[in-house]
Each structure stands twice: as structure tokens, then as C-alpha cells.
Design brief:
By secondary structure, this protein is an alpha/beta fold. Helix content is 35%, strand content 17%. It has ten helices and 14 strands. Helix 1 links the parallel strand 1 and strand 2. Helix 1 runs parallel beside helix 2. It starts with a strand and ends with a helix.
């Protein structure tokens, strides 16, 4: 297996099928985590749509909530499964179920082959002047949050409580989506086993999937192999906590961006996906 895709999804079976079929191929493994927030008929439809695709692995399901440590747990469960592959894939990429490739399989494979032992993790030290809110990101790690699924609110913050960051580590944050070389996957696996106190700390941070992997890897001996680059095209022009939904009007800037993937897409807006498929097919035929 040369490339492993770890995809977290919770809805939109048709879009998930389309993404997986675009990515699947020889020497590719697709590891799917479907949140338990997806009702059983939705999950069953996903399985049915992809049952003929080789290299698809279904991970044990857990309920995930935006902003909570459950997303990190789902990701770590996927890395556990990928770590059992011998040898480890040349790169492991984390995607969401609303992502879509901007490049053909050939182009993606060539990019990752050129990358060699480098990993791609978008990051910045906290506090960051570029972090518009939350005191440059400090509130995410110094305040204490609890994820409670029986409440309608996503996260509960403990008032009047501040915490110190784990000794010897500097906090980093960035995009939740990355591409890791084998050494980085192995390091994260080992770090989690050997540092349960750090894992417990991050369990009560805000949106830890944008913090945990950056902090672990940028404080590691592998930091010089970490490229500060996001492989996704994302439109944050709305200045909200969620990126803009991409459509046909975004086609030209997406394809001109040089990125491998884009997010996020509306499952009902299939025209833009058709055009992206056509562009990839043209490259494959050339």
C-alpha cells in the first residue's frame, strides 16, 4: 500500500462514494470512520455503495462532535489501523467526507512520491497574531472544555478555570487535515502510548483536531521534515468558523491553486464535481 486515506464522515453517502471511487486504486487503502451521529440507514447505504470497491476498510464507529476530542479519537483509531499495515504507507492523508480531489490519481501519487520523507502539516505557534479570536488561540488550550453528548451545546466550558500547558511542549495549531510520512505516523502512535498525561490534557481543549497533531509533531525530532503547507483549497472569506461551500464559480481558482484537494462541497451541487472529474480525466488521457 503506497497511500492511505483516512476519511471522517457523518452524512452524504453519494458524495462519500464518489470521493472514494476517485481515490481508490492499486496500492491505495481507504480507511473510513463514520460517526455514530449518522443513523443506521445512512451507514448501511454507505457500506452498500462501496462494497465492490477494493481497499476499503471500515473502522469501529464512535460518536463525533465538532470541536470535541472525539474527532481526535476517531483519527487515532484510524492511525492504529493504518499502523498495522506492513510496510507503512508512503503517506497517510486525512480527509473529510465533504472533500474532493482537485487532481488526478496520477498527479496526487507523483506529488507524494516527490515529497519523499516529508510530511505536510499546516501549523503556527500559539499564541498567533493570525488567529483572529480566542486570544491568539490561547483560550483553546488554557480554558477547560468538556464534551457532553446528552446536552444540545457542543462543548461545555468550565468557568473561571485556567490551565498550564504540558511541561516541555509548545502549543501549535493549524488545519485539521494533513499528510503524514511513515515516520510521522509511527511517532504519533508512540507519543500517544507514552504520554497519556498529554492526551488527557488535550481531551479538554477546544477544537483539538486543529491542535493535537501540530503540537505533537512540531515538538518532535521530526520537526525539520514537517512542511508548513496545506494541501487543501479552502475559502475562508466569510470569516466564520466554517469554510464557504464551493461551487462552479470557484472552479477556476481551485484548479489554479496547485492544491491536491478542496473543501467543502454540497452533496447536491454535482456540477462542480463533474467538472473536476472531467479535468482529472483529461490529465489521465494526456
Amino acid at each position: 500500500m503506497k497511500v492511505a486515506y483516512l476519511i471522517r464522515a457523518h452524512h452524504a453517502p453519494k458524495l462519500l462514494e464518489r470521493v472514494v471511487r476517485r481515490l481508490a486504486g492499486p496500492d491505495v487503502g481507504v480507511f473510513l470512520h463514520i460517526s455514530r451521529s449518522a443513523e443506521d440507514p445512512v451507514y448501511d447505504e454507505m457500506v452498500s455503495r462501496l462494497q465492490d470497491v477494493e481497499g476499503v476498510h471500515w473502522l469501529p464507529r464512535r460518536r463525533c462532535r465538532y470541536g470535541g476530542f472525539s474527532l481526535v479519537e476517531a483519527t487515532l483509531a484510524g492511525l492504529d489501523a493504518i499502523a498495522e499495515v506492513d510496510p507503512l504507507p508512503r503517506h497517510t492523508l486525512l480527509l473529510s467526507g465533504q472533500d474532493y480531489p482537485l487532481r488526478s490519481r496520477t498527479e496526487i501519487d507523483a506529488f507524494l512520491e516527490r515529497a519523499g520523507e516529508r510530511s505536510f502539516v499546516h501549523h503556527g505557534a500559539i499564541p498567533s497574531a493570525g488567529w483572529r479570536h480566542e486570544r491568539g488561540g490561547l483560550d483553546r488550550v488554557q480554558r477547560m472544555y468538556f464534551e457532553r453528548f446528552r446536552y444540545k451545546t457542543r462543548l461545555l466550558r468550565v468557568p473561571f478555570v485556567t490551565r498550564r500547558f504540558p511541561k516541555g511542549l509548545r502549543p501549535y495549531g493549524g488545519s485539521a487535515f494533513w499528510a503524514l510520512a511513515p515516520e510521522a505516523v509511527a511517532y504519533v502512535e508512540r507519543f500517544v502510548r507514552e504520554n497519556p498525561n498529554v492526551v488527557r490534557f488535550f481531551r479538554h481543549t477546544l477544537i483539538p483536531d486543529e491542535l493535537f497533531f501540530q503540537t505533537v509533531l512540531l515538538n518532535s525530532p521530526l520537526r525539520e521534515t514537517i512542511v508548513n503547507e496545506e494541501l487543501h483549497y479552502v475559502d475562508w472569506s466569510g470569516h466564520t468558523i466554517h469554510p464557504a461551500t464551493l461551487g462552479l464559480e470557484d472552479l477556476e481558482p481551485m484548479l489554479a491553486s496547485g492544491k491536491l484537494f478542496a473543501r467543502k462541497f454540497d452533496p447536491a451541487e454535482t456540477q462542480v464535481l463533474d467538472r473536476l472529474d472531467e479535468a482529472a480525466q483529461a490529465v489521465e488521457r494526456a
